[in-house]
Amino acid sequence: MPMASVNGVKLYYEVTGSGYPLLFCHEFAGDYRSWEPQVRYFSRRYQVITYNARGYPPSDVPEDAKAYTQDQAAADIVGVMRHAGMGQAHLVGLSMGGYAVLHCGLQYPALARSLVVAGCGYGSVASERQRFQQDSGQVAQRIESDGMRVMAGVYAKGPTRVQFEDKDPRGWREFAERLAEHAALGAARTLLGVQGKRPSVYDLEEPMRRLRVPTLIVTGDEDEPCLEPGLFMKRVIPTAGLVVIPKSGHTINLEEPEAFNRTVSDFLTAVEAGKWGPRNPASLSQSAILPAGETGA
Predict the structure, then answer these.
(1) 189 with 62: CB under 8 angstroms?
(2) How many of the other CB atoms lie within 10 Å of CB of 288?
(3) pLDDT attached to residue 99
(4) Distance between CA 265 and CA 259 in Å, rounded?
(5) Which of 120, 117, 109 minimizes the C-alpha distance to 92?
(6) Please, are residues 209 and 237 in contact by the beta-carbon 8 Å criterion?
(7) CA angle at residue 128 from 125 to 134, to 5 degrees?
(8) What is the C-alpha to C-alpha distance for residues 86 and 153, in angstroms, rounded to an integer?
(9) Residue 250 Cα distances to 107, 108, 261, 290, angstroms
């Protein structure tokens, strides 16, 4: 069983295919298996790496709550890359994984050929932040008291998950069943230490303005907590593009795998061709019609 040791914590990972490295980071409710539609598609051209975050067996489940932080999640990406002998890779993440990929790009930009930040932004909007932190704490408590299987049934029915169930009941059931298999301790620690304490994307404005790694922001149009943060990231990251997948919720790589794969594939192709540069500053006029130099009275 392949394991990467990162600061004393062993992380399970899988490598499929050959070519330029493409690493995927899963969301809170997923694990390395959540990327199966992407592994099958992208391993035809890339060396695809998937792994389980700390707290997700067969990766280690540390008991110490201090082992679960946003910075550590970014460092774990670096640890897996170094263990696998990768000097640089395309990085793709969803939700919790999207945050990890974003932070990795901000902290270790030389290691990222590109960033795909999908479903990122939960708990960022100021008016929703306190509620998100309260809900994260409450769910963590209920996972420890009621067990993972009980809470998986609740979590999988969330307002941004029902779109997946409506479109693909069989795929959604598989997703929910896998969620129920997660370690209760790891899930609770992750909710409290990573989800509940991570910074808002709005707090990252200055470092994001300095980011030069090609970046793609992807969100579902019914994933309400991610819509405004996604638009904000598009506006402040000079190299960012934004894709909104219609009639879709949070689990977009599973809910709409063909659209997700095509979108990411087109992005990677543009990056590798040197065709994904920073935004043309001439597009930032105060006028919707006139060039910046022609806006005087």
Answers:
(1) yes
(2) 5
(3) 97
(4) 10
(5) 117
(6) yes
(7) 130
(8) 38
(9) 26, 27, 15, 37
Residue 132, CA atoms < 13 Å, CB-side half-sphere: 19
For residues 179 and 151, the answer to whether their CB atoms sit within 8 Å is no
Q: What is the CA radius of gyration of the chain?
A: 19
Token pair listed for 46: 């890339």
272 Cβ contact partners less than 8 Å away, ≥ 6 residues apart: 20
Sequence-ordered list of residues with C-beta below 8 angstroms from that of 168, at least 6 positions apart, any chain: 254, 255
d(CA 65, CA 185): 10
Q: How far apart are CA 110 and CA 41, in angstroms?
A: 26
What is the spatial distance between Cα 203 and Cα 280, in angstroms, rounded to a whole number? 25
Angstrom CA distances, 101 to 92, 172, 245, 290, stand at 7, 25, 20, 37
In the numeric block, the tokens 């894709």 are attached to 243
Residue 297 has pLDDT above 60, yes or no: no
Amino acid letter for position 129: R
Token look-up 């960012």 returns 240
Residues with Cβ within 8 Å of 196's Cβ and at least 6 positions away in sequence, in order, are 123, 132, 133, 136, 137, 140
- Return the structure tokens found at 253: 């790589």
User: What pLDDT digit, counting tens, does each position of 166-207 carry?
Assistant: 999 999 999 999 999 999 999 999 999 999 899 999 999 999
- Average confidence score pLDDT of the chain: 95
User: Cα(208)–Cα(111) distance, rounded to whole angstroms?
Assistant: 16
